[in-house]
Design brief:
The complex is a heterodimer of chains A (398) and B (363). Chain A is of the alpha+beta class. Chain A has 13 helices and 8 strands. In chain A, the strands form 3 sheets. In chain A, strands 1-2-3-8 form a 4-stranded antiparallel β-sheet. Chain A has a two-stranded antiparallel ribbon with strand order 4-5. Classes of the chains: A alpha+beta (398), B mainly alpha (363).
Chain lengths: 398, 363
């Protein structure tokens, strides 16, 4: 609460300002008060906590990282057993969170874009259906949706012996989904390598094509060539390495499926819930982004003789993306944060592993601090990306 | 006359425009305009045909409404009977059975107050006092202990009243805190600004669930021995802390939208900081951000469902408890659909209102 009349008072240097009314001194006093209050509150909580911890003889520090975790984790990307340390268990949790977030974000963006475009469709039926979907999904809490999908897997789907088979090689049961995947073969490794090589080649091709266009004005059919390279190279590799096509089909052994790719009900419910919920928000963002580009822009682009593909690429998308990307990243962050609700349906994400750790070691302060730090890292990374992107995409005004 | 008109038009070589009304014309222009759209319509209709009739058969034709669990298991329709059989537990939780009228009255009062606020003519200073009085009466109704009302321990609160209380009290308390944080973030004093930025970004960076864990596990450690704070109040504190950070960001947006001239004009009138903010800047800034604030209210309302995880008996938890009864096991979709309907009706009303308000305020 500073005195705002500082310009008039500093102008008259001879006139003595009463000490209490000097805005500079006031501001310093207020700041000292604020810091003092924060420090005092912090000290009060800290000292209470220390005495409470002593009284309850709870250990402090991150020494438990090295101790044996002695709990199993349902699914893990890296080999893990109950004999491993807490540190490794928590790392498995982080990997699981990243896995859900990554797959979830990819699917959400695809579904959300699709729904956003459907919402703007000239087809009344499609547009209204999309609107209903968006409204309903936005208005039901994500946790309720997660519970619903989890119960869908457990209560509605049949046991493994009577598993539904909607498509050949896909089994749905209360043990989750089982897919047929191609059998392991060295050819797939080579295909992955050739895919990466293709992407790098396209990157340089784009650079070269842009340079050539600036120099000579000739336009290179970049889009078709890029697709041909990125898809063609792996295909050629596949053909040359003997075109393996055997599938690894899941089979019922005992009570569960063996082979193929298994998706547990926990992971399936979490992913389904997160994607269906967040896609509704993404759809609204996409719709707003497309509508933000005025019709005049399209007409102006047509008037200077651009083709439809060029209009989309050079005029509409750059402007729409500028509107879409910032709220989209915050939705991606929301999805990552909401993935922490996995703890409610028993998927071993980071929060769930951390809360097991808290229960076993009793070290709640360290556990909750870790949860906060991990999610803060996710959001800091996102905001770094946002700042970089905003700088790159910001309107260059001349 | 008509003939004459027709003659004139025909003589000019002009035709009257084809009138595009009628159901058939509407279908043609909205569903079958072009090959692609026609295919899309047909595919969508086929999909709807596959999904909707079985659903209606399940939910309405084959369904049970007031039967026992055994009859439900025999049939293959939806078993809505789970809701009437458990309705009082789902709505009121462990609140003493004979006293259910009190939370019911409190809820009716709260809804009444919210409906009263909908009319913008009622937005006066007296509204604040009405709200404070209303909240106190509601608290009294829930808690009892005065005026001959039996005291009910807050551990027994639950269900829909708890959901409403957590969200409404959370919003009411978080709003002033959010404004203070937003003003702090816009302050020119570096220490104040830093404290506010750290708070806002810290809270916005972590999931609500970590704050709820904190309220459940850490808060007891923060206070000296002997001081115990009720579990509901701790969860409420976490929700307030969380919501305040989001409100602060929304209010900051409003503050940024106020032009410099307004600040300067207020200063040249000789108003001090508090007067300037209270009389000139905030009334304008808060008006701009009403629609996004309603958005935050909606998400705060939805987020109260997360207290399930720290085992507070709000409506989702009471529903799950009812489902854990072996007699009613396996009918979770029906129960969840019922709770989803409650949430949907509340949120949809709010978001509709916010959209209408946005239009009104714009024009």
């Amino acid at each position: 609460m500073r005195n705002s009349n500082n310009s008039s008072s500093t102008g008259n240097a001879e006139q003595k300002i009463p000490l209490l009314n000097d805005p500079k001194i006031r501001s310093i006093v207020y700041q000292i008060l604020t810091i003092g209050m924060v420090v005092l509150l912090g000290y009060y909580l800290f000292s209470n906590t220390v005495t409470n911890l002593k009284r309850q003889s709870i250990a402090t520090g991150f020494g438990f990282f090295e101790k044996e975790a002695s709990f199993e984790i349902g699914e893990s990307l890296i080999p893990y057993s109950a004999a491993d340390t807490y540190g490794k268990a928590l790392f498995v949790g982080i990997l699981n969170t990243v896995k859900v977030a990554f797959i979830g974000i990819v699917l959400t963006v695809i579904l959300g874009t699709f729904l956003g475009i459907a919402r703007l469709s000239k087809n009344w039926l499609v547009s209204k259906l999309a609107a209903v979907y968006i409204e309903v999904m936005q208005d039901i809490p994500i946790l309720l949706q997660l519970f619903f999908w989890y119960s869908f897997f457990y209560d509605i789907l049949p046991p493994t012996r009577e598993a539904l088979e909607p498509m050949k090689g896909v089994f749905m049961s209360n043990r989750g989904l089982a897919f047929a995947i191609p059998e392991a073969h060295p050819a797939y490794k080579y295909m992955a390598i050739s895919f990466i090589v293709g992407c790098i080649a396209v990157y340089f091709l784009r650079k070269w094509a842009k340079k050539r266009q600036e120099k000579t004005g000739q336009i290179f059919p970049l889009f078709l060539c890029s697709i041909a390279i990125i898809l063609g190279l792996p295909l050629v590799t596949w053909l040359f390495s003997g075109a393996p096509h055997r599938m690894n089909v899941p089979e019922l052994v005992g009570f569960n499926f063996q082979g193929g790719l298994n998706i547990s009900p926990e992971f399936g419910a979490l992913l389904l819930g997160l994607v269906l919920y967040t896609a509704a928000f993404v759809a609204e963002i996409v719709r707003a982004g497309i509508q933000a580009v005025s019709k005049g822009q399209t007409e102006a682009a047509m008037a200077i003789g651009l083709k439809p593909g060029q209009i989309l690429n050079l005029v509409i998308l750059p402007q729409a993306l500028r509107v879409i990307i910032p709220p989209l990243t915050s939705q991606m962050l929301n999805l990552t944060k909401n993935s922490s609700l996995a703890v409610a349906i028993g998927f071993p994400d980071f929060v769930s592993v951390a809360s097991t750790t808290i229960n076993q070691t009793g070290q709640a302060i360290e556990g909750i601090t870790m949860i906060m730090v991990v999610y803060l890292c996710f959001s800091l990374l996102t905001s770094f990306f946002m700042n970089w992107y905003n700088k790159k995409m910001a309107l260059v005004e001349r | 006359m008509d003939k004459l008109k027709n003659n004139i038009i025909q003589s000019d070589g002009l035709k009257a425009p084809v009138i595009r009304i009628g159901a058939l014309q509407w279908i043609r222009s909205n569903l079958f305009n072009g090959v692609f759209n026609s295919i899309l319509t047909i595919v969508t209709l086929l999909l709807l045909y596959k999904v909707v009739p079985p659903f209606i058969k399940w939910a309405f034709i084959d369904s049970f409404w007031f039967s026992t669990a055994k009859e439900c298991s025999a049939g293959d329709g939806a078993c809505w009977s789970i809701i009437p059989a458990n309705i009082r537990f789902i709505i009121f939780g462990f609140y003493p059975h004979e006293l259910h009228w009190r939370p019911l009255l409190a809820m009716i009062m709260m809804v009444g107050l919210i409906l009263y606020c909908k009319n913008r003519d009622h937005w006066k200073k007296s509204l604040i006092y009405i709200w404070i009085a209303g909240l106190i009466i509601m608290g009294l109704l829930m808690k009892g202990g005065l005026f001959g009302l039996t005291s009910v321990d807050s551990d027994q609160w639950g269900g829909l009243p708890l959901t409403l209380m957590l969200s409404v009290f959370g919003m009411v308390a978080a709003y002033p805190l959010g404004i203070v944080l937003a003003l702090g973030r816009r302050s020119k004093m570096p220490a104040v600004k830093t404290v506010c930025i750290i708070y806002i970004e810290l809270i916005r960076g972590v999931p609500l669930i970590s704050l709820l864990f904190m309220s459940a596990i850490l808060f007891p450690l923060f206070f000296p021995q002997g001081v115990t704070i009720n579990k509901i109040i701790r969860a409420q504190a976490a929700i307030i802390m969380f919501t305040a950070a989001y409100i602060a960001e929304v209010v900051r947006g409003g503050l940024q939208a106020i032009t410099r001239g307004q600040y300067e004009a207020a200063e040249s009138l000789g108003l001090n900081y508090a007067q300037k903010m209270r009389l000139v800047i905030l009334p304008q800034a808060l008006k701009i951000v009403i629609p996004p604030t309603v958005g935050i209210l909606i998400s705060a309302f939805k987020d109260t469902s997360l207290v399930v995880i720290i085992a507070l008996y709000e409506i989702l938890k009471t529903t799950r408890t009812a489902l854990a009864d072996p007699a009613w096991m396996g009918f979770s979709p029906e129960a969840y659909i019922f709770v989803a309907l409650i949430y949907f009706v509340c949120c949809y009303t709010m978001s509709n209102y916010s959209r209408r308000l946005e239009k009104e305020l714009h024009s």
